[in-house]
Amino acid sequence: MASDEAKRNAEALIPKFQFDRVLNQDGGGRRITLLGRVNAEPALLVLDRAPFPDAPEYLSVLPANLRSLTNLGNNDIYSWFLGSGGPILKDNDKDRYADFKIDLICPCTDKHIKKHSRQGHRFVTETPAIYRDQVRPFMQANREAGRLNWVYNIIEGRKEVEDVIYRTPLGRDGDEGFLMLPNLHWDRKTIEALHLLCIVERRDLWSLRDLKKKHIPWLRHMRAKAIDATVKSYPQIEEDQLKLFFHYQPTYYHLHIHVVHVALEATSTQSVGKAVGLDSVIEQLERMGGDEETGMDSVSLSYTVGEESELWTDIFEPLKTGRKASLQQ
Fold first, then answer.
1. Enzyme catalytic residues
2. Which residue did the predictor score with more confidence, 57 or 149?
3. Which of 28, 101, 244, 326 is the most buried (most CB within 10 A)?
């Protein structure tokens, strides 16, 4: 469990943020991404407008300054917070109406800056050959660069222990082991915006590309356990109010399943070219010919990539340019 001192240290970082420039702001004005520095280290500050409460006692005194900041957790270079732009109306010593969800990445890298910057997007098709020869080595390089440390912190119980809503005892169940905890972008209060992550213990599965016919029983088991853990943790939710999906490409290369409320507003992370339904993957695997080793690495997948991402600049743009050159010859 995070110590009080660790929480205080994390909360002290926000006032030290020195603004440099705006990287991005969504069309609805609910999220803005700022680039700056904290203690001379490059940092990203992502501010989300949480859903407005409809309580009259809050709305009647809404015009006020940001007055409250509570650290929800911190893991490696990531910290996330709730803050209040209205008066502090407390309930059991906690602010009832925090209306900012705040993420801090410090120190951030060039990859973080590119990911969060406003940029154009391309729709690409990743064939089995492109995956095998170019994307798979790219994934491996990312894993070997230490970019999964924060995931391993969670799996091994070093960070975010208090946030885990369900887990199999570490190491007990082998390939069947997994845990569930809130996605860092969820405010942990608005049920209709529920967003959980189901993270597997095993490290041989990097993405849905690694799933094979032999994994179908395991995937069905994971689906059942994830849904059961969610409805037990949040009794106001029923099974048919949940969606389970993978991201492809995922943000990080360690297999995990997203569990969200069906009412969650469909952002770009749930759009075509990003979210792939768990049930759809299972059905696709079931319909495949071949033996038990046949899997998702044998099909073409289409998805969106940002023009600033390494997937575009290092893989798909050169492929596109090369195709154009060959056609012109």
1. 256
2. 149
3. 101
